[in-house]
Design brief:
Blueprint lengths: L2 E5 L10 H10 L4 E4 L8 H6 L6 E12 L2 E8 L6 H27 L6 H8 L6 H10 L30 H10 L3 E4 L13 H9 L4 E5 L5 H14 L2 E4 L19 H10 L6 E2 L8
Helix pairs in contact: 4-5
Amino acid sequence: MRIDLHTHSTASDGTDTPAELMRNAAAAGLDVVALTDHDTTRGHAAAAAAVPEGLTLVTGAELSCRLDGIGLHMLAYLFDPEEPELLRERELVRDDRVPRAQAMIGKLQELGVPVDWQQVARIAGDGSVGRPHIAEALVELGVVPTVSDAFTPDWLADGGRAYVEKHELDPFTAIRLVKAAGGVTVFAHPLAVKRGRTVPESAIAELAACGLDGIEVDHMDHDEDVRARLRGLAGELGLLATGSSDYHGSRKSCRLGEYTTDPEIYGEITRRATGAFPVPGTGGTGGA
């Protein structure tokens, strides 16, 4: 089985619609794919309606968190999307996205970049506006060559010249809320140093002690040494070690299924989850 547990659609900052993502996942030879848009479950229904035969959809989200001033992302799988407290927190993050993006645009204008809200809103479309959409605007304007090049201290990285903080969950709270909603938590790309500061391994141990289920080990932003280090840490802490593409469509260079999760780990995730169940493909009826 080929299992990719971290992808994004146009419901947040990917370029594939949820239905397109399902078709592309099947075409890439995946057996299981998780839809984990940022702080939203808006794409779940369209994805579930379009799952081709032979593919299974895992519903989820990537939650924005912050610990001691350091941003981190928490993958949440198979939780009840209507659980009130977790839903309220996701809505707080979502509602903060537009004013935050507008504030970053203002900072960029002060730096002499001719970006405006209309351009960013066009790029975001129906998605939850975020830094990747602003980064794509910088690419369009020729300020940086790629989206990844916008995530530096010069521009949009945490603490960068145009960075603006947003509402984010405490990760310990995130774990508690996801657990209460019947879900499973995995710390996304925990040592992706190219994205900025990362939390120390002692913090990962504290999160594990509070119920964290796993850490994302095999990821494009982890080199071989980091993966080996994280795999050892997962073993020491009794955490599940996952792998995934973090696919964003054409917005990033990673391919669906570039990294995958062991079937036994996937089986343990589904065993622990009680808030929702994987959606097996029946041929798909979804459109675009």
